[in-house]
């Protein structure tokens, strides 16, 4: 009888901790959708140092005729419902299902540049290659 009561109480407690559909869903399953280099990981942690509960949202912005552009934003909880999350070493990366299609398989790195500001570099194997680049590769 005691075991039956515990079984009834446990699902209720699990639901209170984070039911599907709640904006503060803490039961989101993490998956790896991008590779983050150690240099990028260090920078992400540095940016989040003063906001330990925040997460990083990776998104794709339409950039007109030039295609798309990556956006990285620091956001406070909760992670939006439906977002795909990746638990990294000490921080969380979130992306919408729509943007996941464009970024999955990418590598994010941090570059120290000589003549330009330092910044994140995205290596995306799914990115569209120009016909000039493809023609050059075909001739080799």
Gist?
With 140 residues, the protein is α/β, with parallel strands linked by helices. It is 31% helix and 26% strand.
Overview of this protein structure:
The structure is a single chain. By secondary structure, this protein is an alpha/beta fold. Residues 1-27 and 130-140 have low confidence and may be disordered. Strands 3-2-5-4 form a four-stranded mixed beta sheet. A three-stranded mixed beta sheet has the order 1-6-7. The protein is globular. The chain is built from four helices and seven strands; from the N terminus they run αβαββββαββα. The chain has helices at 2-18, 38-48, 97-103, 131-139, and strands spanning 35-36, 55-62, 68-75, 84-87, 92-95, 107-111, 119-123. It starts with a helix and ends with a helix.
The largest sheet is: 4 strands, mixed
- Quote the average pLDDT: 75
Number of helices: 4
What share of the residues does DSSP label as strand, in percent? 25-35%
Please estimate the helix content. Answer: 25-40%
Secondary structure elements and their pairing?
Elements: H1 2-18, E1 35-36, H2 38-48, E2 55-62, E3 68-75, E4 84-87, E5 92-95, H3 97-103, E6 107-111, E7 119-123, H4 131-139
Parallel strand pairs: 1-6, 2-5
Antiparallel strand pairs: 2-3, 4-5, 6-7
Core attributes:
4 helices, 140 residues, 4-stranded mixed sheet, disordered C terminus, alpha/beta, disordered N terminus, 3-stranded mixed sheet, 7 strands
